[in-house]
Amino acid sequence: MFSFLRLSGADPHLGVEMQSTGEVACFGHNAHEAFLKSLIASGVQISKIFEPCGVLLALNPKDKAAVAKYLPLLDEMGFKIFATHGTASFLEASKTQRNANNSAICVTPLAKSAEGAVSAITEKTVQLVICTPSSRDSAGQTPGYKIRRKALETGVPDREHAAGPDAHRCPLREVHP
């Protein structure tokens, strides 16, 4: 975990030059425990994720199908699922929104602009963000940048890889099924 909060305006998406750099190294009895410890050490309030809360999905086109398979798991854990307009449209069209009882999983679409997602983060409607970057805009003002930056500034955990839901799900389920 890298301390992006100390770098004003920095995009919390790690580029090639920073992927092996970190400020938090944690050990545990297994990878899940070490991951949880790293979240806690980097300032994530784990107790907020255990409460019924919202998760925001803001996915680039190539990750949408990969993350869609995790919707039943997020639903089972009690997350209320929010999505950016493009992600919500994909999930609706893909018809993968079924839980273990074969009932529809509700995905709440947010406004078309990044401002809807930023508002959901600011207002604490969501307590977990899964935002996969789609470009490396040198100006840094992409919608994904705004979402990731607001999550960082408000202390909301942000996963930026398609494995994000599973990376959070497994350790959280071990500690708090």
General description of the model:
Keywords: ATP-binding, Ligase, Nucleotide-binding. One of its GO terms (molecular function) is carbamoyl-phosphate synthase (glutamine-hydrolyzing) activity. This is MGS-like domain-containing protein. One of its GO terms (biological process) is glutamine metabolic process. It holds the Pfam family MGS. The structure is a single chain. The protein is built from eight helices and five strands. Strands 3-2-1-4-5 form a five-stranded parallel β-sheet. Helix 1 crosses helix 8 and helix 6 runs parallel beside helix 7. By secondary structure, it is an alpha/beta fold. The protein starts with 30 loop residues before the first helix and ends with a helix. 35% of the residues are buried. Helix 5 links the parallel strand 2 and strand 3. The chain has one domain: 3-Layer(aba) Sandwich (Rossmann fold), CATH 3.40.50.
